[in-house]
Structure formats: structure tokens, C-alpha cells
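Long-time lurker. I teach an intro course on protein structure, and each term I like to show students one example going from raw sequence to a predicted 3D structure in C-alpha cell notation. This year I'd like something fresh instead of my usual example. Would anyone be willing to generate the C-alpha cells for the chain below so I can use it in lecture? Attribution to the forum is fine with me.
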Amino acid sequence: MSFDLVAEPEILRRTPRIVAGLVRDLPETWTHRNEGEGTWSVFDILGHLIHGEDADWIPRARVILEHGTSRAFEPFDRFAQFEASKGKTLSQLLDEFADARTRSLAQLADLGLTPADMARPGKHPDLGEVTLGQLLSTWVAHDLDHIAQIARVMAKSHAEDVGPWKAYLRVLK
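-- Reply from a regular --
Happy to contribute to a lecture. Here you go:
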């Protein structure tokens, strides 16, 4: 399935509301716990999603449209959120993400993309040649991946509490 210029932005538009619906106004015991050493909390994931709005999806789409494969994307700092989110509350991050996503979707619409544009090539610094359609499809899958990650991190807080039902809960495996 290639990136659908009408349907896919609807998924992207919903992500901030979905995440906010899951975590807004929860105590930090829910939003700052992680799955162990080197893993991310809900707070960290949200910061990462914000950084993606600023440094990944639309900036890289513009590079593809303006430079094709003659210029590689800037490397993406997958850990920038740790510094950028310092001193902020979860509520601030939720609002910042919603605002950033609204701006990104407006910019996406302003690009005036056509189905033919989805085949336009670009250059990823690690993966090599990619297409605009792959980049935009990854944006959708990335959102869904992090929604699942948020649910998993939250569910794992009860991994031992559920007793024998753990055998039935894939989210805890």
C-alpha cells in the first residue's frame, strides 16, 4: 500500500489525541516509568515524537523534493528529547506535540504532493536510497509503533500483578 495523500494524514492527525487520551493527567508514576535500563518512558517517547516533527518528516520530505539523491538527509538524533524535554511537564509536551503535528500537517498539505511524487528518491544517511512515499509511510508506521510502545510500557507496570493471566497478555511478553 502506498502513501495515500488523503487517508494517511488522518492517521497522523489523530496521534496527538490518542496519546493525550491515554496519558494526560496521569501521575508521573505512570508516565515516567520505563521498561528497564536503556528504555524510554511515556515522557521520553513524547519528547521523541516532538523532535521528529521538528527534524525528521517534513524536513526530509523537503530535502527529497529539493535535492533528490544529491544530498543526504541530516542524521536524526534519536535521543535529542532527553535534553529538549528537561524542565517540561507531560502536559506541556502533549500540547507541544499537538501544535507541532498541526504545523507539520499544514506543511505537508502546502507541498501539494501528487501520487507521482511518492516515487521521488532521496538519500538516507544509513539506508541509502529511499522514496518520498517510503518516508511518509514510515511516519505513519512510526506513530503507530510509538502508540503501541506507550501501551506496552504502561501495561508492563502490572506484569507481575496479573498473575497467571500474563500467559494471555501479549503486551507483557
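Some talking points for your students: The beta strands are 121-124, 128-131. The first strand starts at residue 121 and ends at 124.
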